[in-house]
Model the fold of this input.
Amino acid sequence: MPGERRDLVIAGSGVAGLSAAVYAARADLDPLVLEGDEPGGQLTLTTDVENFLGFPDGVGGMELIQRGKEQAERFGAEFQHGSIETAAVDGQPLELTLSTGETLRTRALIVATGASARWVGAENEDELMGYGLSTCATCDGAFHRGDDVFVVGGGDSAMEEALFLAKFADSVTVVHRRDELRASEIMADRAREHEDIQFRWNTELRALHGSQEEGVTGATVVSHPDGHPTQKAAEGVDVETERVDVGGVFYGIGHTPNTAFLEETGVELDADGYVVTQTDETGRATAETAVEGVFAAGDVADPSYRQAITAAGTGSMAALDAEAYLERIENERRTAVETTA
Ligand code: NAP
Done:
């Protein structure tokens, strides 16, 4: 209920948030899950998930999320629309202002707000995302056996996607807006040396073709020998336009962690905005952040693995750490009451 004081709020309803909700609800913490701006998270943008343990025939991304939500609700987790706009976390209780304008007070917070894959802004990408257009080669690469595919981007993500896709696709073409890669030397070399990976330099994606029934069937690209063709075209410079037949397009232009509300709160963020989780006194990983009572799970704290299964794992870690924290502060409160009595 809005305005109510909670023991535990979980921000985000992707795999990490749902996994945390299942664990927390089973521990009788009555978690409230804020569904966020993209309810269900990135999995709702993919079709079949074939690498989540326990589903030998694969499972739809949306179905996996729906099942996770039902599982959390079965144990008593509550769900509410909205996301956190501002967080005051420098003392108990933590105070959260929501996008709905409501204020929530809570003793613990699990941040599972994810990272949003950046989109290029090409025509038809809304319609074709999940239908041959993807932001995750590990999730969707195996559906492109024998296809010619495009990977957009010039960083490590794009190289990683291209190398992964080369196992399935007939050919992989990296489409990059400049003639120099941003990727690390080692990743760039691996991609350059792969016989099934080609590069289209100084090129950007303008439009995708196809339908939800047929999937992606082609792409229109623009190019200019000096790079950044879209910008050039906007400045009135002539650019070359070409339509190419492709059976799949993958975006690898980076992710943005959803942590704007944590800036200036004391929660440590790395240079790219990802939450830095802390190690305990023995050096082991925890889901704790630099601020007491605030925990993090899933892609919001993971620029490296970004898998549904790892998000589920860190979601459970965050719930277990939050449970231990709530127990500790409750014991401290009782001791303080007994001492003053
Ligand atoms: P990134 O390093 O920021 O690279 C993004 C790439 O996409 C750049 O080449 C950029 O072009 C291009 N790009 C950005 N916006 C674009 C747009 N609107 N249209 C077309 N192209 C666009 O992101 P990342 O590759 O995701 O890597 C992020 C961090 O994670 C890096 O530190 C990386 O090393 C790390 N990472 C490591 C690994 C690994 O080691 N296995 C794997 C993945 C990521 P410009 O170059 O022209 O800016």
